[in-house]
Each structure stands twice: as structure tokens, then as C-alpha cells.
From TrEMBL:
Residues annotated as transmembrane: 16-42, 48-65, 86-103, 115-136
GO molecular function terms noted in the UniProt entry: monoatomic cation transmembrane transporter activity
Keyword Transmembrane helix carried by entry: yes
Domain Cation efflux protein transmembrane: 16-207
Lineage: Bacteria, Bacillati, Bacillota, Clostridia, Eubacteriales
Keywords: Membrane, Transmembrane, Transmembrane helix, Transport
Originating species: Oxobacter pfennigii
Protein name from the UniProt record: Putative cation efflux system proteinc
Length: 310
């Protein structure tokens, strides 16, 4: 999938999220004040921050796919990880203020019994947010966008938040009004947990996290299957935005020409990029492989030991 298509799909997901969140926020603000529900008002505030988070996500997505320039030789792909951290901070601040508001209500004993309309709005919110989570998560994974995936997890936490709000409202209407602000505290805890998880994932991405063992094995196999490659001496890969950058050392016959060694390296790079998804670039270093003169076999063990320090 080319970068233009990734941006188109990312914009589409962001637009859908904006429309859904705006509708939910307006309906919850109206219902929260009309039905005197702290949990619904807290949930509406959460939807408001979701709108801002989605705008940040789309802005970061556009930056991430800008071409390299004089100040950013490797491109701007890590902008997505930076945006994921911003989204995480927005989510955590939202969770904190919602929880603090609910705690203050309990301390002040300002407990009202919410109206029945609040239950129906919460139920509608659960369905809408579940749809939004599935939709944005599918698109985020299909285009390899960490920020859109992070936003989808935010929508998933909103499903649990709205469910907690609905349970609290129902309990308050059954004669336990304190359950409404308690539900607000539960909503706060769910939101905080989601924000912390997204923040940790963003940090790992910025720290050049390696792909899983299966992907590493596939990269190594593609290199070893290249004609002229005797062995892979060293292999490293790191996440760079939605894709991976690979550095590896290969062992080739020491008696071939520089041009032949260069061609082997070029073919190795092409094989890896063509056979494995989401590889942005491959840097291949060529090591000479020494022969054991007695039986003309390649001494790969010593070769690997000697070249591992290069």
C-alpha cells in the first residue's frame, strides 16, 4: 500500500471518528444536564477530548508521510509515535479530571438521582463506540498507523466507560444515588489505564523496538536465499513509524570483485523488501568469507566471530 492511500484511509477513519464523537458529546451534554447525571457529563467531557485527540492523530499522520528533507534525512515517520504520546497525555488528563470531579461530588454529598434518558444515551454510546473501535482499529492495522491504533484503543476504553456509566445510573435510579459518581470514578480509572498503555507503547516505538522473532527469522531467510550469500553474520531491525529499517552483515566469497559483492548486496536488499511486508529500507554490509584451505570449505564460524566486532 502506497503512502497516498494510507493518508486517504487515515483521513477517512479520522472523519468518521470526528462525526461520531461530536454527535455523542452534544447528546451527552444535553442529557447530562437534563437528567442530572454526573456519569453522563463525565462521559461527554471524555468525548470532547476524543475529538481533540482525533484531530491531533490526523495532523500527525500527515506529517509522518512527508518526504525526507534537509533536517530530517530519514523522513518524518516517528511523528506518529510522538502523536501517540500526546494522545496518551490527553487521555490521562481527561481521566484525572473526571475522577476528581466525581470525588468532589461524593465529598460534598451533592447526590442527585439521574433521569431514565441517561440510560438510553449510554446504551447508544456503547454501540456507537464499539463500532468506532472495530472500524478504526481495522484501518489503523491495515495501514500500519500506530496513532490510529492508539485512538482505536481509546474508543474501546470508551465502551467500558459508557457501560460503567450506565450501570451507575441504573443503580442510582434504584435508590443508590452515590453509584452515579462512583461510576464516574470507574470511568476515570478505565480512561487512565488506557492512556498509560498507549504512552508505554509510544515510548517503545521511539526506542527503536525490534520486530517480533518471526519477522527477524523471515528477514534472515530472505537474505540467506540470495545467490552469493554464504551466511548472515549479523542482523538488526528497528521500528521507524509504520515500517522497519534493517541493518545486516552478509558473508560472501572473498575472491569476488567489488562489483560482484555490490550486486549481491543489492539483490539481498531487494529480496528482503519484496518478500517481507513493511520493510522501508535495508542497509547491507558485505564481509569477506575466508576459506579453510585444506578442504576448500567455508569457515563460517570463525568468519562470524571475526566480523561481529566490525
Amino acid at each position: 500500500m502506497d503512502d497516498k492511500m494510507r493518508i486517504v484511509l487515515g483521513k477517512k477513519a479520522s472523519n468518521v471518528a470526528l462525526i461520531v464523537n461530536i454527535c455523542l458529546m452534544l447528546s451527552k451534554v444535553f442529557t447530562g444536564f437534563l437528567a442530572h447525571s454526573t456519569a453522563i457529563i463525565a462521559d461527554a467531557f471524555n468525548n470532547g477530548t476524543d475529538i481533540f485527540a482525533t484531530l491531533v492523530v490526523f495532523g500527525g499522520l500527515r506529517i509522518a508521510y512527508l518526504p525526507p528533507d534537509e533536517k530530517h534525512h530519514y523522513g518524518h515517520a516517528k511523528a506518529e509515535s510522538v502523536v501517540s504520546k500526546i494522545v496518551a497525555l490527553i487521555i490521562m488528563l481527561t481521566g484525572f479530571f473526571i475522577g476528581w470531579s466525581a470525588v468532589k461530588q461524593i465529598i460534598s454529598f451533592e447526590l442527585d438521582t439521574p433521569g431514565s434518558l441517561a440510560i438510553y444515551v449510554s446504551a447508544a454510546s456503547i454501540l456507537a463506540k464499539f463500532f468506532l473501535y472495530k472500524y478504526t482499529n481495522r484501518i489503523g492495522n491495515s495501514i500500519g498507523s500506530s496513532s490510529i491504533v492508539a485512538d482505536s484503543y481509546n474508543h474501546r476504553s470508551d465502551v467500558l466507560a459508557s457501560l460503567s456509566a450506565m450501570v451507575g445510573i441504573a443503580g442510582a435510579r434504584l435508590g443508590y444515588p452515590i453509584l452515579d459518581p462512583i461510576a464516574g470514578i470507574i470511568v476515570s480509572a478505565i480512561i487512565l489505564k488506557t492512556g498509560i498503555s498507549i504512552y508505554i507503547d509510544a515510548i517503545e516505538s521511539l526506542m527503536d523496538t525490534a520486530p517480533n522473532a518471526e519477522t527477524i527469522k523471515s528477514i534472515e531467510k530472505s537474505a540467506e536465499n540470495t545467490r552469493g550469500v554464504i551466511e548472515v553474520n549479523d542482523l538488526k531491525a528497528r521500528k521507524h513509524g509504520a515500517k522497519y529499517w534493517v541493518d545486516l552483515k552478509i558473508c560472501v566469497d572473498k575472491d569476488i570483485t567489488v562489483e560482484e559483492g555490490h550486486n549481491i548486496a543489492s539483490n539481498t536488499k531487494a529480496n528482503i523488501i519484496n518478500n517481507i511486508e513493511d520493510i522501508a529500507n535495508v542497509l547491507v554490509h558485505v564481509n569477506p568469507c575466508h576459506r579453510v584451505e585444506e578442504n576448500k570449505k567455508y569457515d563460517c564460524i570463525n568468519c562470524k566471530r571475526e566480523n561481529s566486532v566490525q
